[in-house]
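Final report, closing paragraph on structural work. Over the funding period we assembled a curated collection of sequence-structure pairs, and we close with a single example.
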Amino acid sequence: MARRPAPEGVRQPGRTSRPRLTGLGGGLFCGASMFALACLDHLLFGGSATVYGVLFLPVCVLTALWVRPGDLVTAPVVVPIAFACGLPPVTDDGGGGFAGFLMALVTTLALQAGWLYGGTLAAVLVVTVRRVRLVARRRAAQGRDRARSVPPGRQPR
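Its predicted structure, as stored:
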């Protein structure tokens, strides 16, 4: 006797549900996480840009994993924005007022571009793998549906 799969809205026992963020939710999660981690970095390590960059990588991967399938394209877009949102606590004030701080912020962004590109690339890779798997699942489901709809005695092409 074959078991029927549970309806979509019903949680199966023993399986934990993964977070599903909208595009906006992914951006808010990523931006808020990076700002909070930058503040923590400032308190514990004195604003180390390397620590900030290392912490950026898992946030990128989590954002790409948790975004909904319909919003996959947003993950690689929001990650660089979140990187920039978290930079002010890590950036040294520059000692020249607002203009000095702005120059220090741009300099920090330029010097830490490797982390920015690495995190964005990680998000792109995760999103690409998820998208390929999603398309393959849809095609397999369409193939099963076509095979069921063929009347007996006729062979599918």
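The helical segments are 23-45, 49-66, 75-90, 97-111, 113-149. DSSP finds five helices and no strands in the chain. We thank the funder for supporting this effort.
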